[in-house]
Design goal:
heterodimer, A: 350 residues, mainly alpha, B: 285 residues, alpha/beta, Rossmann fold, 2 domains, 6-stranded mixed sheet, 5-stranded antiparallel sheet, 10 helices, 24% strand
């Protein structure tokens, strides 16, 4: 009762931003609950016996029963789900069957690797893709537009594993410009203390330039590849958004005022595509974070994509579900974040 | 008469796959400190004429003319940079629908101040004061609130008054009003026109008023050019418009319903292919 009363009073006096924040948190919670429910169900309907996976085929019936009870499998499904929810809320995704370590520890180790790679990739994609798309739209039909078109087409149609292998062959194998597979060279493993899990950042925090340079030489090739693939998408979308805005009447207004073409493009037209661009960038980023499995495998990158894939192939369901929940959470957070940015960039959405 | 603008033999061409399309075909007219109406139906080239004067026709469109003289200097001979100094500061334009002609994600204040600061080196606070003054001049009360607002928060009539304020703030000599009231409710059309008229008169500007509304133009302007298929078919004094001779103008007038002379059936405009072939009438004074 007291709670309801508080709410009733609060509604009248709550400032709008608190209301929005509460609504946002509420929607994250509901979406998360749905996600957890689905992963839980997947875990239960998979034709894998979790007990057998732990105790092995030769265990006695009594061992089997003990583990069966310990896992709570005798309880009704809804109770099992509540247990699962409770565990996840405490960041407990169970134990990995492969290495008998908590899945949460594994994820804390592999996720930063993916985060680092995806972030550098998306930065490259944005820095090159957005200006390329804008210029292609402004100079529609020019040679820059044609080059942008070809780049995007190749990006869409070239398989990433082939480009990855060719990149390794040329830039690592022949030219020796970049580091090989892995996050750092063998001599630099565990040299700097792991604070964030992002080696580039950790090396900077430690002030260790040698590690930074080595890590950078390892990450730059896979990150450029991922960046190229997001560039293909981002530049095409930027181009079409810009074309739409450049034909808008307010652009003519800006020209009538006597504004230079550069300002017309960047101060007026570009300002109007920010919201759409955020969606595109958030989607690309989420795709990269979800784990670019092929890239991670080719470059022996210990990220979440290769982690989930390995776990799936060895029927390590705890690890698969833990990884899936993390990836889902990232999707949700990125969506919420882009929703927030909409309100910043578009007065009509406020 | 004191000539602000003098245009001779203006053509606007668009190369297409089917060949070159001529939107404006050899139009000549001049503008003094007067209100010059350009009327015609959709596609007659009236808007293109307005935009060609400001050299706003985008490639692949081509603007050609013997000259477009502004104060004796040919605009076609100016570089892009020199042309930017003409736009806004000497010739300005109000477009049809403020819903589209104002930038939706920039505050009204920023848009008006930007128009002023592009041509005048003033501080932000100086530009702000000037913008508020200009908003007051177009009868916007509560100018401080409007300065902070975004275009979608304004009504159509207010939006168009804001456009007028924005386009007149650098104090141009000529205003091209391209169907400035077509998107507005009838009830606010007159009000917007009166405000525009008062400002244009007060500043001794020349006004090119582009419209498809014959009655409005007859009422509001001093002189009228009637355009058909990219040419001027007739030029007459606005108060003599109802005595117009050209069959096209007569046809347009006859197809309008009139309160003082009700008719059971309105005439349908019959087009004569010869109209589009007769050479353009000169609107130069």
């Amino acid at each position: 009762m007291a709670l309801t009363d508080n709410k009733g009073e609060g509604r009248a006096s709550l400032p709008p931003w608190i209301k929005t924040t509460l609504l946002t948190i509420g929607s994250i919670a509901v979406t998360m609950l749905g996600l957890l429910f689905i992963t839980f169900i997947i875990g239960r309907v998979m034709p894998i016996d979790p007990v057998l996976a732990i105790v092995g085929e030769r265990a006695s019936q009594s061992t089997y029963d003990a583990v069966f009870l310990e896992l709570g499998l005798d309880k009704p499904l809804i109770v099992q789900f509540l247990y699962y929810l409770w565990d996840v809320l405490h960041l407990d995704f169970g134990t990995s069957l492969l290495n008998a370590r908590p899945v949460s520890e594994d994820i804390a180790r592999v996720f930063p690797a993916t985060l680092e790679l995806a972030t550098l990739g998306i930065i490259i994609g944005i820095l090159l893709g957005v200006p390329l798309g804008v210029v292609a739209a402004v100079r529609k039909g020019s040679w820059i537009d044609q080059i942008a078109r070809v780049l995007a087409l190749v990006g869409y149609s070239m398989p990433i594993f082939w480009l990855g292998l060719m990149g390794l062959l040329i830039f690592y194998g022949i030219l020796g410009w970049v580091g090989g597979p892995g996050r750092v060279g063998i001599f630099y493993v565990d040299v700097v203390p792991s604070v964030t899990g992002l080696i580039l950042v950790d090396a900077l925090l430690d002030g260790n330039w040698d590690v930074f340079k080595d890590a950078f030489s390892h990450i730059i090739l896979p990150a450029s590849l991922l960046g190229y693939f997001s560039l293909a998408y981002i530049s095409r979308m930027t181009r079409s958004f810009m074309l739409e805005q450049l034909s808008a009447e307010y652009v003519t207004t800006a020209r009538v005022k006597g504004m230079s073409e550069w300002d017309v493009v960047w101060k007026h037209a570009f300002k109007n595509i920010r919201v759409q661009l955020i969606t595109v960038i958030a989607l690309s980023y989420a795709n990269l974070l979800e784990g670019s499995v092929l890239t991670e495998i080719i470059f022996s990158w210990p990220g979440i994509g290769s982690y989930i894939t390995t776990a799936l192939l060895s029927a390590d369901m705890n690890a698969v579900l833990g990884g899936t929940v993390v990836v889902g959470l990232i999707f949700i957070l990125l969506n919420i974040f882009s929703d927030l940015l909409y309100r910043v960039f578009d007065p009509r959405a406020r | 008469m004191d000539k602000l603008l003098d245009i001779e033999n203006l053509w606007v061409r668009f190369p297409t796959r089917q060949g070159v399309f001529d939107a404006v075909r050899g139009v000549s007219f001049s503008l003094g400190r007067e209100r010059l109406g350009i009327v015609g139906e959709s596609g007659s080239g009236k808007s293109m004429t307005g935009r060609a004067i400001l050299r706003l026709i985008r490639p692949p469109g081509i603007v050609e003319a013997d000259h477009i003289n502004l104060g004796g200097v040919d605009l076609l001979k100016k570089t892009d940079k020199q042309m930017r100094a003409v736009r806004g500061q000497r010739i300005s334009m109000v477009m049809q629908d403020p819903k589209f002609s104002l930038n939706p994600v920039t505050t009204i204040g920023d848009q008006i101040m930007e128009a002023y600061r592009l041509h005048n080196k003033v501080s932000k606070s100086g530009a702000y004061a000037k913008a508020v003054e200009m908003l007051n001049a177009v009868s916007i009360r509560d100018a401080d609130r409007v300065m902070r607002a975004y275009p979608h928060e304004m009504s159509g009539g207010m939006g168009q008054r804001i456009m007028i304020a924005m386009m007149l703030i650098p104090n141009p000599e000529i205003l091209i009003a391209d169907e400035p009231t077509s998107a507005l409710d009838v009830s606010v059309q007159r009000q917007v026109l009166d405000i525009m008229d008062a400002l244009v008169k007060e500043r001794g500007m020349g006004l090119i008023f582009i419209s498809h509304d014959l009655n409005l133009v007859a009422d509001f302007c001093d002189r009228v050019l009637i355009m058909y298929a990219g040419r001027i078919v007739e030029v007459c004094a606005a108060d003599k418009l109802h005595e117009a001779q050209h069959p096209y103008t007569r046809g347009l007038l006859n197809s309008l319903p009139r309160l003082d002379a009700p008719r059971a059936r309105l005439e349908v405009l019959r087009r004569d292919p010869a109209w589009s072939e007769t050479p353009s009438v000169s609107g130069r004074v």
